[in-house]
Fold this protein.
Amino acid sequence: MKKLLGMIAITLLPLAPLTAAAHGAAALRFEKSVTIKAPAAKVWALLKDFSNEQAWHSGVESTKVETKKDENGDDATYRTVKLKNGGTMYEKLRSADDAGMRLKYEYVLEKSTLQFSNFYPTISVTANGGDTVVTVKGSYTRADSSNIPKPEQNDDAATKAINEFFDTGFASLKSVAESGK
Amino acid sequence: MLWANNAAAGNFAYITNQGSNTVSVLDIDSRKVTHTIAVGKAPVGVAIADKQQRIYISNANSQTISVIDHRSKQQLQEIRVNIQPVGIALSRDEKTLYAADWEGAQVIAIETAHPEKQTAFKAGKTPSGMVVSADNKKLFIANRDSDDITVIDTRTLKQITRVPVGIHPFALTLSPDGKTVYVVNVVSNSLSLLNVETYQTQTMKTGQHPYGAAATPDGRWIYVTNNHAESVSVIESATGKIVKTIAVGEFPEGIDYDPVSQLVIVANWGTDNLSLIDTRTNEVTSIVPCEKLCRAFGRFIFNTGASK
């Protein structure tokens, strides 16, 4: 019996590193919400301004927007977000829908420092009685898509980086929106 | 009229749930998931072997292909492959299963009767969706990161040609008459119609981030999932005109047409459910829950009439 268990352990061992590491082809889903005691219109006005993320995100130092041609040759709005911790996020605006209060953009890893990729978030603002619910939802992948990614670019690193950014941001959004300003 | 009902027995959809490591079996007649089958890690791709009564599933994170028996609704086997498999496709005789390596610029041909016999051959960067021509002579491979399609001679496994398409081609679907390969170009927000013989292409607009395509049997209407627009575009193939945009769940990906019910079935990755669209009215008639992160990449409807 002892011998048999030993054999099982040996056959399972080579599989473990592969299964633990490989996630490149399978995108992850990110979703986070915050409830804010402020009118939806006020919250949406803060979020939809693609050129002024520092107005609501306490981790953001500055935002600079530019218009350029995208990969399809269409005019598109991009922003460079400088973070207070020295990081940079480069993002493309996809749509800002006033009627539905939904903002869609794309994170471009090649010109950014936070280690996640293929991140296409939708931020939606919904009135709920007197409160407002803000939800960010999107797909993302780790920065290193290979079977055995570097630890700083694996699924866990990507998930941690996205969570930290929105945990900070939603906390400060709530405090800004709920303040008398 | 009982025999007539039997002849038109309902089909089944095999839906990969990337986040649950399972496959949901949808009984299309009853519109219920009747079985949930445990497979490998992060199942993505589906290939249906109607004659074998088997379903092949690519498990991207366990480097395996699961083989499911349609009769017992159980996994028979997990085939070890030395790649990160995503897109899979079967030869018309079901003797060869092709599996694309997401990480490497290669595809492997697996003998379905002897799955340990695997032959690797070259493709472009990040090979994704694949389809075999109706005459079984050619394999088409979408190379997501080289923005083109590799055409392979299935007899020699050598490249015949490479055809440039839009940016990030992902899923491939053969038209019902076998003359055209539909290519969704994810970043270009377009559909390329690639002629199987001349390799000429024609381009049509889709919604944002197209991820999959399916057509009605007459080839008149093409249904495209718009992964970032929570919708399906209905495109008239002759004119490229989008005649309707149908709201579905979030991040819709896999899409297939069922000839028995005349439904188009859509897997919504973002909302863990399926939208069933009646192609006679172009309305969503049912929403069926599935498990986490459902994808159903490839042709995923098992045709119960095909094996008879």
